[in-house]
Amino acid sequence: VQYVALTVLNNRIADRATKPGSPFVGGQAALVPDLVGAASLTQLAVAAAPEKWNEALAAVILEQRQATAGPVTAEELKRAVTQVRTQLDTAAANAPTRKNEDLADGLLSAAAQDQLYTSPRQDLDFARPVLDALTPELVEAAMRQAFTGKGPVLFRSSQGEPAGADKLAAELAADYAKPLAARAADAAIVWPYSSFGAPGKVVSRKVDKQLGTTLVTFANGSRLLVRPSTLEKDKIRISVSLGGGRAGADPALLRALWAVDLMPLGGTGKLALADVQRWAQSGGLVVNAQLKAGVRSFSLTGNTRPADFASEMQLLAAYARDPGFRPELGEKMAAIGPMVAGQVDANAGAVFTRETQRLTGGGDSRFGQLPTGAEIAATTSADLPALLGPALAGPADVTIVGDIDVAGAIKAMQTTFAAGPKLTRKPVAKPAIAMPAGRDEPWVVNHKGRADQAFYGRYWALPDYFANPSLSYTADVAAAILRARLVDTVREKLGLTYSPNAGAVGSVQIAGQGYLSVSIETPEGNFTTFASLLDEQISDLAAKPVSADELDRARRPLIESRTKQYESNEWWIGNLPQVLIDPRVRSVLLSEVTGIERVDAAQVQQLFAGYVVGKKPVTVIAKAK
User: What whole-number distance in Å separates Cα of residue 568 and Cα of residue 589?
Assistant: First the structure.
């Protein structure tokens, strides 16, 4: 009952966070029933821009006080109960296809915490009569009980400008002493996205038995690639590819690529995000929408279940065909941007990754996933609609994987992305880069984290995948062999806590991008020793072939992992969209296992002798400022 009560409160907090002028960007109330055997507590947390911390505190305390004062409306109770029931129903429906590793983790966690392990069906059966008997009065009582006891204790965390205990205590007391106004009732929501124009007509249909897919082309230029699967019961994954992504982005707007993920916060043209959430939660719908900036397309994605498939497709189409870009999106960008910049700059690994992505991406800022503080500071609220508008207006390539039949996928497509007039498909962007030439001196970047945190990495250029597919598979095996050797030698020399990493990239999306990499997180004083150990292993691998046993120990796990990926709908939905962008990717998806199997010891030796030994690498160091 308390969980339902806090769901009511969390809905209010989430709705408040998405509205214009909200002083916080997000928040949540949670129950901690057992704090290391000493106590239980209710936690209320919010994230806000540093200069708005006191406004955010006042706002969330107001939400908490109004919730404990009551009343909980019938509509709020229905929304919360529906959410909880939907969570339990979905878990029970998905239970037959749970992964063995998840089951093992769940069993071990329950045993470690001295808890009884229950199945999703048992959880549903236990909760159903409780949910059926709930009344606003019961939930109001549970809400008050959740915030009864000692406290509250206020904790504030910020990278700078500490407020001090006296200031915190004064703010807390003042916020609880303010007169309490009644909460305004929420207006009813009517879903306005049931039609996107005249239903689309099917132009062509092609079955690929090897991939298990059906490709359908529609008259308006949109395409559907559907792969029915029984790997996940009652779950459907959807990915909508739009525009040219990072490769096709306007050069004048590259600074705003970091904010693409935030676009759904702007809601749609007809509904704010809070209204979209209320529509979904009150209806018991399992729907969601995220946007990512991929290399060659912007990807609008969501997961749902068969019962809600039509609603999920309508939601995704609403974001694409009628994006909101509301004022609150600009506010969230302004608040979240400095948080992102501060977190990246204070994290040694993030600063190291940002620099390596820049260099291995040929210095092209389009292909770096982590922004600089300057890029964030230069981004304006007008940048995101300018960056995404042309992509969202074009034809969609929709990939669907999961518990769905082809006919059902086509029907939903006809009334959403395939509906309406013909759309112009722009030429596909074909990015190409060249890594900078290696040199004796490293590229050095500074982070603002702990002084003892540092990263060291070397990168040797290789061809991209399509330039030499065989070499790409050889590089994967070579990296696995080098990693295993370095783990043994580095741990012996530097201690058990330092584990090096080695990997290989042969890009299928960016021409010219390929490299063998080795990196380690270790104090700067260990760099020379690590470099010496690395040089020894590379020289040995180039001088003579590895043994059959060492080759097999490196190759076998790669074969097993690539075989197992075919059993993952998550892998299929992540890779099939690329087939629509570049048909050559089809052969990559089907040949990975055989490609690894064919790698022999002579090829590994030739890779190190021809591409690594005697070649100056790109060396990157990240250390404290």
Answer: 13
Six-digit token pair at 136? 């606003």
Instruction: Say if pTM beats, i.e. exceeds, 0.85.
Output: yes
Q: Which is it for strands 443-447 and 618-624: parallel, antiparallel or unpaired?
A: parallel
Mean pLDDT rounded to a whole number for the chain: 95
Closest CA to 221 of 476, 59, 394, 29: 394
- Measured at the CA of 75, the angle between CA 69 and CA 76, to 5 degrees, comes to 45
- The answer to whether 211 touches 349, Cβ cutoff 8 Å, is no
Contact 259, 269 (CB under 8 A): no
* φ, ψ at 378 (rounded to 5°): -85, -10
The closest alpha carbon to 515, from 575, 440, 465, 586, belongs to: 465
Return all residues near 205 (Cβ < 8 A) that are at least 6 apart.
214, 215, 216, 217
Q: Which residues pair with 516 in a beta bridge?
A: 460, 504
Average pLDDT over residues 186-196: 92
Instruction: Quickly count: other Cβ atoms within 10 Å of residue 60's Cβ.
Output: 25
How many Cβ atoms sit within 10 Å of the Cβ of residue 36?
A: 6
* Cα dihedral 123, 125, 127, 133 in deg (nearest 10): 180
Region 411-437: mean pLDDT is 94
Q: What is the DSSP letter of 427?
A: P
Distances from the Cα of 316 to the Cαs of 87, 145, 288, 384, in angstroms? 21, 39, 8, 18
Q: What is the pLDDT of residue 37?
A: 81
C-alpha 433/C-alpha 350 separation (Å) is: 22
Banded pLDDT at 429 (limits 50, 70, 90): confident
pLDDT in tens, 145-170: 999 999 899 999 987 788 899 999 99
Helix (H, G, I), strand (E, B) or coil at 440: coil
